[in-house]
Fold this protein.
Amino acid sequence: MVKLLRFLKPFAWSVSTVLVLVLFQSLADLYLPTLMSDIVDIGIINGDNQYILRVGGLMLFFAAGSALCMIAASFLSAKIAIGFGKNLRSMVFSRVESYSLHEFDQLGTASLITRTTNDITQIQQVLIVILRMMVSAPMMSIGGIIMAVSKDAVLSLVFVVAMPVLAGAILLIFRRGVPLFKTMQVNLDKLNRVLREGLTGIRVVRAFNRLDHERERFQMTNSDLTVTAINVNKLMAALMPVMMLVMNFSTIAIVWFGGIRVDHGDMQVGDMMAFLQYAMHIMFSLVMISFMFIMLPRAEASAVRINEVLDIVPEIKDAEKVKHTAGRRGFVEFINVTFGYPGAEQPAISNISFTAGPGEVTAIIGGTGSGKSTLINLIPRFYDIDEGSILIDGVDVREMSQESLRAKIGLVPQKAVLFTGTIADNIRYGKEDAADEEIRRAAETAQATDFITTMKDGFDSLIAQGGTNISGGQKQRLSIARALVRKPEIYVLDDALSALDYKTDARLRIALRKETADATVLIVAQRVSTVMGADRIIVMEKGKIAGIGSHRELLNTCEVYREIVLSQFSGEEIA
């Protein structure tokens, strides 16, 4: 929690103002019982109406000042907490954006969403309480004890019994509450994950008639969270009766023993009334402290989880001195590249070497799990390689800035990802300042114009979250259009034509040839028909290159490629 307070630096002046306001409010509240005591012991007993009016007016002044300070402090506290939450969310989001795919896998999407929303909200709420009570509660408690002792030291012995009981109860509940709050946040992560899976996969759930299974799965996770939350609230609910019991017994003791001391002439009535007020101040300050302790365990658990996000140092970061490419455009070269996923026993790809240049189409084909997508993901530096080098225009990708590297690449991922918005917005995602004509040209090349024009609003038609209101082939074509509008030096298509029919596939490849004549094109595909026209075909098997060459060359020299071709074409078609 303390580490996160550095995000309060922009609000240093406002925090100082709140603390000063709370200080004045506390001083005013502490002075009011003394004034009341003077009215009773001096004004009423002596019948001095002028004194009563004068001191009463002073009491009203201090009460009004206390109220104004409280309102101003509450307003500023809320403003600080909201601003703090905004800055912290921005920082967490920025840090998550810098993660490599490995770091995403470590924490998980559901947990990152919970940490960025619910966890920061918990800290935001407790910050308001801290700003309002951090100064007020201790000052009211300590000041109340000092003022009570000044009124009657003997009667103050009541606090010697009451305060340790209250402090012990608060400490015990705090120690037992912290683990439960941590468990509750973990259960919230699980609930978020199950809910996201159930909603995003609703078509599969319904297709396989697994609604009851998913409902049970959700109920189990929801029950775990509910049971933990109930246990936490039972624990916290026990604190209030204990506090009220101590406060009421303290009040009885003060009135009982105070009455005896007034009867013996050791104490005046006004002082006893003031003493009772100070006792209430002390007890209520302890209630406020306990309220802080109730909120702190959950905030502490949330702070730990947020610090985990902020403390992760991204594996992939720019070199201290980045290099820039000059003279060459679109040259890709793999030199003895080996890469293995963290924790894997064997590398995903080994000793990969090839070159690809502008005006060439390099296709990558192989069986499932052969390392095709892994190889492609290394070009934009989604992962860092273990051995060898990947050169773009003669510069190692690890020596380039990530921004300049990815600016050269137009990526069409294996799973087409679209965002909520219009079709034009999704295509323009590849180039923010793309003109309408550029968007139409990219859509036409991607063979997307046919279905776009049939939609009600054309390019202004809305795409649902994740593109659920269009087909898989339409999503792929829009993803290709998004890469085309960027006009990059290197096109990377990771199995981006798999959902297209053969006719559309063929038309798209012809159009791509014309549009990308000056660029380097790398295509990952499962279909032989997609890759057979490529200038160079790389055949992958078990993470290694089984062969490189043209379609005809590989048919004669590469057994793996021949098996793939035979699995998709008859002997007559091959001939």
Q: What stands out?
A: The longest strand covers residues 332-339.
